[in-house]
């Protein structure tokens, strides 16, 4: 355990916890002895070496989850709720220490990491309550003496494969729902942020999750995914990541009829109408555009700004973006941290360079600062056209492309001109405009004068190339339950 974590943990955790895989209730090294060098994206320095396994580890985890499933499924939802609530209670007094670990490996500012761990408590507690409301129903029968009832029952072993950008949130929304439903879990976190997943599993273990109910395998993504998709005991896999990998999982699922939930990214349109306050819109846009250095699936990306305030908006966001302070996430004065790795930084830089070469105007940023770390300056591009890379591709970085528009029909067509359909944002003070845009945008999530389309009690997910399935909300619980219809004759 690192000194960073020790500083905020109690004696029991300091003496008993190490960053390893969790399989069948035991914290273990990789079966083959493999390790992964975990790098701090803000310094490019080594944080730690953690276990990095593969097929053998994944198979052991599935075995453990399958063995634990019958007993866990038979527990009452109230008993399962107690585990989730106790896990949240374990997290709350340790948020500061847990957040430091997440900041070290993800690069995000400490305040954002604290918010993520705090929100994890909300997801655990909400699904603890929702699990006891997994109501079935009675259907009036056409024939006398017949009864028709509908039951919702736990699905089985659930596999999760998640991304690094929200190393706690991406997991907790799935793990909490699956566990509340009565399923057991094999989680494969990103190799870039595995310790956050290990700590979340530790919280569930501290909450009383029996051995094998929650398992964490940090290992080769292809090998782990292959085990999950080939084993019939794994009834569903929830994946957060790239469209390329999502499509590969769909191909594999066709051979085993394994269910999938896929969140495959986004390219969220932001429509700024001419009736808004420029200053307020600019400040909020910059805040949310640069959250987690723009590495957010629902990040506002394509900014369509009405021509009446386009230039004023462009100048103000450029000024605000240019003034943001880059730095290590553990420095409380930092506003924007680094990108996750060199590959991601080079990808963002390439998108900007190609767009500028195609005619986009660089208002601010567009470069990497000197020194260590995977930093990229917050960037604003004006005079962007729909055929430019920063418009057509998911940037996943601190880049704000600006496109002017004249009327609602025009901008709605532009906004829907994307293979993605996760989130969309509308800034307006006109009710009719807000309704028209909300209903017309081809996305799964719409924010009107709001920037956060995520909360435990509401469904989260996309359409089109952004995937399918819903996390959170009552819909998120039912994603991990089988619906069974029971017909009983000769009653009465």
Automatic annotation (TrEMBL):
One of its GO terms (molecular function) is succinate-semialdehyde dehydrogenase (NAD+) activity. It comes from Truepera radiovictrix (strain DSM 17093 / CIP 108686 / LMG 22925 / RQ-24). It comes from the Bacteria. The active site is at residue 263. Keywords: Oxidoreductase. GO terms for biological process: gamma-aminobutyric acid catabolic process. InterPro entries: Ald_DH/histidinol_DH, Ald_DH_C, Ald_DH_CS_GLU, Ald_DH_N, Aldehyde_DH_dom, Aldehyde_DH_Superfamily. This is Aldehyde Dehydrogenase. Signal peptide: none annotated. Residues 27-486 form the Aldehyde dehydrogenase domain. Belongs to the aldehyde dehydrogenase family.
């Amino acid at each position: 355990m690192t000194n960073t974590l020790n500083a905020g943990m109690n004696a029991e955790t300091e003496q008993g916890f190490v960053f390893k895989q969790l399989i069948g209730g035991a914290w273990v090294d990789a079966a083959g002895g493999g390790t992964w060098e975990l790098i701090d994206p803000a310094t490019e320095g080594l944080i730690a070496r953690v276990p990095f396994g593969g097929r053998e580890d994944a198979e052991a985890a599935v075995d453990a989850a399958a063995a634990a499933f019958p007993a866990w499924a038979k527990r009452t939802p109230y008993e399962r709720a107690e585990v989730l609530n106790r896990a949240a209670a374990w997290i709350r007094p340790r948020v500061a220490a847990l957040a430091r670990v997440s900041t070290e490996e993800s690069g995000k500012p400490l305040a954002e990491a604290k918010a993520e761990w705090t929100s994890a408590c909300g997801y655990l507690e909400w699904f603890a309550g929702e699990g006891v409301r997994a109501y079935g129903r009675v259907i009036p029968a056409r024939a006398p003496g017949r009864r028709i009832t509908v039951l919702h029952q736990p699905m089985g072993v659930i596999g999760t494969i998640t991304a690094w950008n929200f190393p706690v949130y991406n997991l907790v929304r799935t793990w909490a729902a699956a566990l509340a439903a009565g399923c057991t879990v094999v989680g494969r976190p990103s190799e870039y942020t595995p310790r956050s997943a290990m700590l979340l599993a530790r919280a569930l273990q501290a909450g009383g999750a029996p051995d094998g109910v929650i398992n964490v395998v940090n290992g080769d993504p292809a090998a782990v995914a292959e085990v999950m998709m080939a084993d019939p005991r794994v009834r569903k896999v929830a994946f957060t990541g790239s469209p390329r990998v999502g499509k590969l999982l769909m191909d594999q699922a066709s051979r085993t009829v394994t269910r999938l939930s896929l969140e495959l990214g986004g390219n969220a349109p932001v429509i700024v109408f001419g009736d808004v306050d420029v200053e307020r819109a600019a400040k909020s846009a910059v805040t949310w555009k640069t959250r987690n250095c723009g590495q957010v699936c629902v990040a506002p990306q394509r900014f369509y700004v009405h021509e009446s305030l386009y230039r004023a908006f462009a100048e103000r966001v450029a000024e605000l973006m240019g003034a943001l302070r880059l730095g290590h996430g553990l420095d409380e004065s930092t506003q924007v941290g680094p990108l996750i790795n060199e590959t991601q930084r080079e990808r963002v830089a390439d998108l900007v360079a190609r767009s500028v070469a195609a005619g986009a105007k660089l208002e601010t940023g567009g470069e990497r600062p000197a020194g260590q770390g995977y930093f990229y300056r917050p960037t604003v591009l004006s005079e962007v056209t729909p055929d430019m890379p920063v418009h057509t591709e998911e940037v996943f970085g601190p880049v704000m492309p600006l496109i002017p528009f004249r009327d609602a029909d025009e901008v709605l067509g532009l906004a829907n001109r994307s293979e993605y359909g996760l989130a969309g944002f509308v800034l307006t003070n006109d009710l009719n405009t807000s309704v028209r845009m909300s209903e017309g945008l081809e996305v799964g999530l719409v924010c009107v004068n709001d920037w956060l389309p995520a909360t435990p009690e509401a469904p989260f997910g996309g359409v089109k190339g952004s995937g399918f399935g819903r996390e959170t909300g009552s819909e998120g619980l039912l994603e991990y339950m089988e619906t069974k219809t029971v017909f009983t004759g000769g009653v009465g």
